[in-house]
Amino acid sequence: MSGFAYCLTGDKIARTTPEAALAGSDQLIWVHLHSNDDEAKQWLTDAAKLPDYIVESLTASETRPRCDQIADGAFLNLRGRSSEEMSMSDPLASVRIWAVAGRVYSVTRRPLTALDVVIAAVETGEIRDPGDLIAEFAAAITADLDPEVADLGDALDDCEADLDADRVFQLRREVTQVRVKAIGYRRFLFPQRAAIEKLAALPIAWLQDDDRVHLNAAADRAARMAEELESIRERSALMHEALTDLRAEQIDQRSLIISVVAMIFLPLTFLTGLLGMNVKGIPYAEQPWAFDGVVWVCVVISFAISIYFIRRRWFR
Question: How does the average pLDDT of the chain come out, rounded?
């Protein structure tokens, strides 16, 4: 288990260890743990003296964004980008937060990129209470996700602009990747928006009006990203259908060419097969010009059939 803590007393910000932070009585104590083992659960139970249901929520292996009020505290689960490689089905890392007046506990199992922004805000003195800290978490996570969602939209725009039958396979792979990412992000952004909105509406004394304003702004940004992801998912489905149609047209065109070529050579094959029979009585078998004559007859037949198909616009 690894972690750190910040203690705020007046205008003084100090970084310390989680154990040392719990021993003080500062204006604000923020303890952050990074762990995925039982050591964090034991520390939260024995050292921090948190109730079992709070410890279970902070250390659960499978989570989704949610918000719950428990007495005068609030539990919040958010999802954000991680610096580690994540699976396509679970592309966002979670941060679990338990806040009461004067104290905030947060736990992550994967590195959270927005955490550095929150730490910077704490060290510059922008955070004065638990409401400020939670609002900063929500704002940093949504701000970090916004460019990623915009990049998905731009990637899909590029695929639509480069729509070409010669690049069907490459475009289908790119569109599929965009669609899978959009579905993965959308899975968490819709409940995340609801969780932030619920937190902003909780009747908690330590949650100030300015905190609620910032939380509502983060919720609105999450809603906009969720709507953008929904649009990307629908556009990806339409793009996939268009690529499938292009591929089908390409196959039809090639099948048509093969059919035309086969129909041109079908009478020629019949003619040459008929004249190639090893029987007596084949006309002009002893004439020196017979081979050239047969070749020219085949050329004329091929030319005539080709003109017929061109006039019937089979090649268009």
Answer: 85
